[in-house]
């Protein structure tokens, strides 16, 4: 069981979707992740949304012309994604053993995005395996973009993953850090409690 399942019991899809719908109705920007991804690869590129949840990021990218696949372990989140975008491909799988070719979607993605604190919410001890799996899903030169909290203020669980640890997992997976931001709006990273990291295969 990953830390997300421990936190939510795997029944949080509707509640999670309602929270973001309310933010959007109040005029808040809820598409920063998709906007940053769109600056990194051109429309038409293949995108894997790893830990896609209710599909908010991937659905926005699809509307911008990207070819995407979403994968998540939480059935309640995927139910919302499938309802909101039935024509997109949504897969239920543990990222620690996810293999695109075996799942029938093929590897060679141009970009893998892991938004929403995916890495800190993994089952402890699987971070390296997940980084390796996501790297294997990329084409040579493809990008892994992951944003997550580093302190209690930015996480729903106690912090467990440092940037140094994450970078080490990525290096082991054959990835190289190319950019690091403080937000999905690409503000410069200054050592704060949230980071968006871009690694290249």
The poorly predicted ranges are: none
Helix- and strand-based class? alpha/beta
Strand order of the largest sheet: 3-2-1-4-5-7-6
* Proportion of residues in helical segments: 25-40%
Mean pLDDT: 91
Principal-axis shape equals: globular
Tell how many strands the DSSP assignment holds: 7
Order of helices and strands: HHHEHEHEHEHEHEE
Instruction: Describe the sheet with the most strands.
Output: 7 strands, mixed
Number of helices: 8
Radius of gyration over all CA atoms, rounded: 15 Å
What is the CA–CA distance across the termini?
29 Å
Write up what this structure looks like.
- The chain has helices at about 5-10, 15-25, 30-40, 55-65, 75-85, 100-105, 125-135, 165-170; strands at about 45-50, 65-70, 90, 110-115, 140-150, 175-180, 195-200.
- It has about 200 residues and is α/β, with parallel strands linked by helices.
- α2 packs across α5 (about 75-85) and α3 (about 30-40) packs across α4 (about 55-65).
- It is built from eight helices and seven strands, in the order αααβαβαβαβαβαββ.
- The mean pLDDT is about 90.
- The radius of gyration is 15 Å and the shape is globular.
- It has a seven-stranded mixed β-sheet.
- α5 links the parallel β2 (about 65-70) and β3 (about 90).
């Amino acid at each position: 069981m990953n830390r997300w399942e421990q936190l939510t019991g795997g029944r949080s899809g509707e509640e999670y979707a309602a929270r973001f719908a309310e933010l959007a109705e109040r005029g808040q920007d809820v598409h920063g992740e998709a906007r940053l991804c769109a600056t990194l690869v051109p429309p038409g590129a293949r995108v894997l949304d790893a830990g896609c949840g209710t599909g908010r990021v991937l659905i926005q990218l699809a509307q911008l012309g990207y070819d995407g696949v979403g994968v998540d372990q939480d059935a309640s989140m995927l139910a919302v994604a499938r309802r909101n975008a039935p024509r997109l491909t949504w897969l239920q799988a543990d990222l620690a053993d996810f293999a695109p070719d075996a799942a029938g979607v093929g590897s060679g993605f141009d970009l893998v995005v892991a938004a929403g604190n995916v890495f800190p919410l993994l089952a402890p001890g699987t971070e390296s395996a997940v980084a390796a799996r996501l790297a294997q899903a990329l084409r040579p030169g493809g990008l892994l973009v992951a944003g997550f909290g580093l302190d209690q203020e930015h996480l729903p669980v106690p912090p467990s993953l440092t940037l140094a640890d994450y970078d080490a997992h990525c290096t082991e997976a054959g990835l190289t850090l190319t950019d690091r931001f403080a937000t999905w709006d690409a503000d410069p990273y200054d050592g704060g409690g949230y980071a968006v990291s871009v690694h290249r295969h």
